[in-house]
Structure formats: structure tokens, C-alpha cells
Design brief:
The protein folds into two domains: 150 residues, Rossmann fold, CATH 3.40.50; 81 residues. The chain is 41% helix and 11% strand. The longest helix is centred in the first third of the chain and has 16 residues. The N and C termini lie close together (8 Å). The radius of gyration is 18 Å and the shape is globular. The strands form two sheets. The protein has a six-stranded parallel beta sheet with strand order 5-4-1-6-7-8, sandwiched between helices. A two-stranded antiparallel sheet has the order 2-3. The relative contact order is 0.17. By secondary structure, it is α/β, with parallel strands linked by helices. It contains eight helices and eight strands.
């Protein structure tokens, strides 16, 4: 094994995205309420987010897809709203940290991965700008200021989302690795473990479950501590 692709939300960072998303939208609405009515904003946000999730690599980056779908629907120009969005992610987004929690094994895992010479990519769902991803890495105690990640997925750099094969192909291309040299680590059977269909090895993080279904589509499953043990004992190279 040469590279680890690490999901972020509910993998490195304890973060229930369904609950977090509600707080995120509430905070974002508060930021833009003076220039955009809530309902049109929410409708445009839903359509634009769906467009990113279904981007297949042929429509530009996820950021470009978002802008193409979002701004025409709310009748506001990017020049008018982008400064607000940038301010939101630079300042207001930090208030959402309290809805997440640190996994005490996240930092030891990342430290060990770099000590052992693995390439490490943050393979989070790229529907947020880089600023939001960097913030959540800090919340997890594994900030990019401290660790030299080989690649960090964001909506500026990616043109597909998990589980689309183009998502995984893009990261492998950036790392210069073949699928069999990479381990995808994540909490979602649907989004993360889909990497196995394209030849990557897979580790399903099932933190809040005693165990997953016997037929779970992954090579291994367990906690981040289990993954640390796998690396320490050399078991990762037997996958």
C-alpha cells in the first residue's frame, strides 16, 4: 500500500452531516438574508448542490457547476454574493465547530501515515470550498498547517463527487498511483466503499456501530484505532 485516501466528515472528524447541514444552512441564510430571500436561496442551493453531486467530470469543476446553477436562479450576480460567501467561510463558518467533535485517534492515524511514508489525500465530498475543508481539518486536529497532505479535495479542484469513478480517478491521477496501491478510508458504504468497484482497497469506518453487515462491500471495517493497528502490524500491506 502506498497511499491513504481519507474521508473527513464522520471519519477523521466526528460530524453527523445531516445534523451539521441544518446548522450550516441556518447560518448561511443569516449571512445572506439582507440581499436574498430565504426560499429562493434554499431552492437554488438545493439545485446547485444536486448538480455538483451528479457532476460527471464533463461540466467543469464543482465550483463552476455550482455557480452556473445557483446564481441565475436567485437573480443575483456572483460579484454581489461571492464576497459574502467568502466572508462566511472565513468568519461565520467557525461557529459551526461546536456541532462536531474530535476523534482522539484521528491525529495519531495521520501522524503514523506520514511517519510510515504513505501519501495522504483528503478525499472528502467536494461540495464545499477549500476554506471550509481546511477549517474542518483543523477541527479534527489534523490541520493542513501541520501535515503536508498530498491532495485535498474541494469543490474548486474536483469535477465529480463520490461515488462517481471520476472522483477516485482524479485523486489517483494527482497521486500518481494505481488503484491497487491505495486504501480508501471512510464511513459511507455508498459513497466511500464504492472505491472498491474501481480497484481501490477499502476500509469502512463504523465508529458508532459494533460491526457492519456481514456483506458490507469493503475489504475491512473498524474504528480509526483498528486502522492504526493495521498499519502498525503491517496488515495493511496484506490487503
Amino acid at each position: 500500500m502506498k497511499a491513504l485516501l481519507l474521508d473527513l466528515d464522520d471519519t477523521l472528524l466526528i460530524n453527523d452531516m445531516d445534523a451539521f447541514g441544518q446548522h450550516y444552512i441556518k447560518a448561511l441564510l443569516a449571512k445572506v438574508r439582507k440581499v436574498c430571500p430565504p426560499q429562493p436561496f434554499l431552492e437554488a442551493l438545493e439545485v446547485a448542490t444536486r448538480a455538483m453531486l451528479y457532476n460527471d467530470g464533463t461540466n467543469g469543476t464543482n465550483a463552476e457547476v455550482f455557480r452556473q446553477e445557483f446564481f441565475p436562479r436567485i437573480g443575483r450576480s456572483p460579484e454581489e454574493l461571492m464576497p459574502l460567501f467568502e466572508e462566511f467561510y472565513a468568519q461565520d463558518f467557525e461557529t459551526l465547530r461546536r456541532y462536531t467533535a474530535v476523534d482522539p485517534d484521528a491525529r495519531p492515524l495521520v501522524e503514523l501515515a506520514f511517519e510510515r511514508g504513505y501519501q495522504v489525500a483528503i478525499a472528502t465530498q467536494p461540495v464545499f470550498p477549500l476554506a471550509a475543508t481546511l477549517a474542518r481539518l483543523r477541527w479534527a486536529g489534523v490541520g493542513a498547517e501541520e501535515f503536508p497532505y498530498d491532495f485535498i479535495a474541494s469543490y474548486e479542484t474536483m469535477s465529480a463527487c463520490k461515488p462517481h469513478p471520476h472522483f477516485f480517478a482524479t485523486i489517483l491521477e494527482r497521486l500518481g498511483r494505481a488503484p491497487g496501491e491505495c486504501l480508501m478510508v471512510g464511513d459511507s458504504l455508498d459513497a466511500d466503499m464504492a472505491a472498491g468497484k474501481w480497484g481501490l482497497k477499502t476500509f469502512w469506518v463504523c465508529r458508532r456501530r459494533e460491526s457492519g453487515p456481514a456483506a458490507a462491500p469493503c475489504d475491512l471495517q473498524g474504528s480509526l484505532r483498528d486502522l492504526i493497528t493495521l498499519i502498525e502490524t503491517g496488515g495493511i500491506d496484506e490487503l
